[in-house]
C-alpha cells in the first residue's frame, strides 16, 4: 500500500508543478483584460474627476484650471453642510436599526420553526425592488397616513428623515439577514455546547460567545449599511426630492442638484463629489478597522 500512496503523492506534486507553470505562463491572458477594464472604467474617470474639481467647465474639452476656488464655493449656500449632517444622522440611525433587527430576525430563523424558508424569502424580497419604485410606494403610504393630520413628507425635514429611515430599513433588513444567517449557521457547535455545559445563561451565551464569533459578519453588514447610507440617492429623490427647501436632501442628491441644477456650478459639484468620496472612504476605513479589531478566532 505504501507504493500506492507514494505514487499518488508524486502525481499530486506533478499536478501542482504543472499548474504553477501554467499560471506563470498564461496569467497575463486572464488578468490583463480585467486590469485594463478596471483602469478604463474606474481609475481613469476617477482621476479625471479629481482634475475637473479644480476646473471651470461644462464639458471635459473646455475645462479651465481655476485652482481651489471650487472647493471654496462648496460652503457658500450652506446646503452641503446641512446635507452632510443630515446624511451622518441618517446613516447612524439606519446602521443601528438595520443591524440589530437583521441579527434578531436571522437568529430567530436559524431556530427550528415552521415556514422559516418562506419567511426568509419574504424578508429578502424588498431588496429586489428598485429604489425609485420603493420611494414612490412609501411616499403614497406615508403621505396617506400623514394626511390625516394635514401633513406630508415635504411639510418638514423631520417627516422626510423618518420616512427615509423606514424605507431603507424595510429594504435592507432582509439582505443583512441573509448575511447574518450564513454567519450563524457557520458557528462552531462545540463552542456553543461547551458554553451550555458550563452553565452559561442565554444572555451570556449571546454576548460572550455568539456575538464575538459573529464579528466577521457584523463587519460586513456594518460596512454595507454605512456605505449604503452615505451614498443613498434614488430613494431620497423619489420620496422627498430634498424638500422642503433642501432640508431633507442627502449628500448624493445635493451633489446631483449642484452639478446638473445650477449652470456654471459643474466644477463645484465635482468638488463636492471629491469631498464626498474622501468622507465615505475615511469613515468606512475607520468602521472596518474598529469592527475587524474585535473579531476573534473560533
Automatic annotation (TrEMBL):
Q: List keywords of the entry alphabetically.
A: Cell membrane, Membrane, Transmembrane, Transmembrane helix, Transport
Domain ABC transmembrane type-1, by residue range, is 84-287
Known InterPro entries for this protein? MetI-like, MetI-like_sf, UgpAE/MalFG_permease
Q: How does it sit in the membrane?
A: Multi-pass membrane protein
Q: What transmembrane ranges does the database entry give?
A: 26-52, 84-110, 122-141, 161-184, 205-226, 267-286
Any one Gene Ontology cellular component term annotated for this protein = plasma membrane
Q: Which residues form a coiled coil?
A: none
Location comes to: Cell membrane
Biological process per Gene Ontology, one example term: transmembrane transport
Q: Which Pfam families does this chain map to?
A: BPD_transp_1
**What domain of life?**
Bacteria
What does the similarity note say? Answer: Belongs to the binding-protein-dependent transport system permease family.
Its recorded name reads ABC transporter, permease protein
Q: Which organism is it from?
A: Parascardovia denticolens DSM 10105 = JCM 12538
Amino acid at each position: 500500500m505504501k507504493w500506492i500512496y507514494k505514487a499518488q503523492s508524486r502525481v499530486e506534486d506533478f499536478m501542482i508543478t504543472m499548474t504553477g507553470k501554467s499560471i506563470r505562463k498564461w496569467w497575463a491572458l486572464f488578468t490583463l483584460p480585467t486590469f485594463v477594464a478596471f483602469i478604463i472604467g474606474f481609475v481613469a474617470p476617477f482621476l479625471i474627476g479629481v482634475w475637473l474639481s479644480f476646473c471651470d467647465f461644462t464639458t471635459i474639452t473646455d475645462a479651465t484650471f481655476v485652482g481651489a476656488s471650487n472647493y471654496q464655493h462648496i460652503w457658500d449656500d450652506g446646503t452641503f453642510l446641512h446635507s452632510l449632517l443630515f446624511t451622518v444622522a441618517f446613516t447612524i440611525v439606519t446602521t443601528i436599526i438595520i443591524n440589530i433587527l437583521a441579527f434578531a430576525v436571522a437568529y430567530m430563523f436559524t431556530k427550528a420553526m415552521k415556514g422559516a424558508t418562506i419567511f426568509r424569502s419574504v424578508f429578502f424580497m424588498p431588496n429586489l425592488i428598485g429604489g425609485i419604485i420603493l420611494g414612490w410606494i412609501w411616499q403614497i403610504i406615508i403621505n396617506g397616513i400623514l394626511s390625516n393630520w394635514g401633513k406630508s413628507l415635504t411639510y418638514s425635514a423631520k417627516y422626510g428623515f423618518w420616512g427615509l429611515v423606514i424605507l431603507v430599513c424595510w429594504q435592507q433588513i432582509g439582505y443583512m439577514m441573509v448575511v447574518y444567517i450564513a454567519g450563524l449557521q457557520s458557528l462552531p457547535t462545540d463552542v456553543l455546547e461547551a458554553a451550555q455545559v458550563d452553565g452559561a445563561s442565554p444572555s451570556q451565551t449571546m454576548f460572550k460567545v455568539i456575538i464575538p464569533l459573529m464579528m466577521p459578519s457584523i463587519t460586513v453588514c456594518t460596512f454595507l449599511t454605512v456605505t449604503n447610507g452615505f451614498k443613498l440617492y434614488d430613494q431620497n429623490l423619489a420620496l422627498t426630492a430634498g424638500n422642503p427647501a433642501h432640508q431633507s436632501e442627502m449628500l448624493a442628491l445635493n451633489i446631483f442638484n449642484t452639478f446638473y441644477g445650477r449652470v456654471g456650478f459643474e466644477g463645484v459639484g465635482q468638488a463636492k463629489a471629491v469631498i464626498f468620496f474622501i468622507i465615505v472612504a475615511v469613515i468606512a476605513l475607520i468602521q472596518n478597522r474598529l469592527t475587524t479589531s474585535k473579531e476573534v478566532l473560533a
